[in-house]
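Many introductory courses stop at the sequence. We go one step further.
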Amino acid sequence: MIHTERARTTSEAQAPGKLYIAGEYAVVEAGHPAILVAVNRYITARISEVPSGNHGHIHSQGHPEAEVSWQRDADGECVSDEHRPAAAFILEAIRTVDEVARAAGVQPRLFDTRIVSELDDDSGRKYGLGSSAAVTVAAIQALLGFYGLELEPLERYKIAFIASSRAQRVGSGGDLAASLYGGCIRFCAVDRAWVRKRLLDTDVASLITMPWPKLSISRLRAFDEGQTAEQADPAMHGSLTGQPVSRLRLLVGWSGRPASTEDLVTQVRRHNPQDQPERFAEFLKSSDQCVDALAEALTRGDMDGVRTRVGEARTLLQGLSSLTGTPIETAELTTLITLAIAHGAAAKTSGAGGGDCGIAILERLDEADALRDDWKAHGIAPLGLSVCQPLADTPRGRTAVRSARTTTSAWPCTSMSMRGPTPSTTCGSSTTGSAGCRFHASTPPSPSAASRGRCPSISTP
């Protein structure tokens, strides 16, 4: 259900970038899991009302190719003044939120949108941290605040998915989930064909309240970024309270070569499952088992188990690369991985591969420093990223800790509520809690949590 509050003249929101830990490519198929993390670099979207005139403007710092002016036609629809593919995600975010606003009885307005990104370098070169997803989530969060529309996080996710799928038809939506929920998550994609069909006969405001088949998002308590258990997930308590979440640390290296996720995923899907369906089905089954075993190892801080499962995930991607002729692990990424393994880390490519980033997971700080030095000496750029804190809390008792022998279907299909922990009863359905956003609760977060976390939406009356 959409709740309305006082609209604002300005609204600002941030969304973090993301990295895949495991399950890439398999997650593109509905219902198959992947593990992702949100990282501590952000895109900020700021919406400012245009008090006069008939045009709004999109400004993107460092990306003039995404800048465009727009206006409302006779029906009040957002229409861009020129074709700018780089602005597609923002324009679709505007149009999709417009539909939700109208359903709530709120009249869409003219405004300027300003985007500032930390997900690329000073030259505008991208690192593969999911900037399209992050800008979509940030824009939608800011627009909802601008119109005074209050929705559950899962409903916000669904709006972001609809907007993103209208701008680009390839992708699982896992990057959107990581950017909206933060922290580390286990994610299974919705049946995209079902969403497309529903959009033909269902308005967006109604669609986001429906259960979405195969969609599943659950919290993994993994990686030690200086958080205690109750800071990472306030719903967790008892013997874990005050204890470190995990000893494991994530290091990220950039290969120096940008890659196109859309092109790589399209190449894989073009070859499968039509060409060799049995082999592709076996890849999906093996990936599911590997991801869930890795999820358990990460949650338990079992470094030996993490090394084993990350190695399996790498082998699976190498097999997929051979099967489809898709260049997933480049020579630069092989160097990154080989150096990391020599320092006792678990390492692999992250995301679609073909360039961009590789990841290393380890538990010894001295090895982390030495690995960064080795990467630099071999032309790999350490990015200095860490896992950002969760931005939406897991329902009580639904933190994703299951046996590695558990099948994918036995994992809980959960939603995550910004207002507090409430179990979801239906896969992909919305929940409503009562505790309040932990960044805006009546009891402020601890100083350490406040200093490391960022509120996902910051609005100015």
